[in-house]
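Box 3.1 A note on notation
Throughout this textbook, protein chains are presented in two layers. The first layer is the amino acid sequence; the second is a token string describing backbone geometry. Keep the layers aligned when reading.
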Amino acid sequence: MGPKILIVDDHEIVREGLRNLLSQSRPGWIICGQAKNGEEAVAAVRDLTPDAVLLDITMPVMNGLEAARRIAQSGTGCRILMFTMHESDSLDREVHDAGAQGYVLKSQAARNLVVAIETILDGDTFFGIREKH
């Protein structure tokens, strides 16, 4: 059985797009569930015990960074990859401080998401590569 992945984003179309991308790229991976906010993500990690969670940062109810902190402190061993459209100079630090193993910018998902998930599942970190403007 392949690794179980939980997808968390407040936009249904984004969750479905991610599910399709991951299912087509890595048919052995199991998309074990989806959530639409950080609070649901924390509960889903507890209930579904995924190997990795793909977690949007900007969401209602509880943002992804707070959800990452709670997931990291839960002792489940779930690896956390943040997913964001917001680039900032402090992003690396914020993601690391939240207990996540890395992040991918939404603008780079098509080329970096699968390798980022593979990287964190292998026990390494993946801190997104910023595009040159």
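The longest helix spans residues 12-25. The mean pLDDT is 90.
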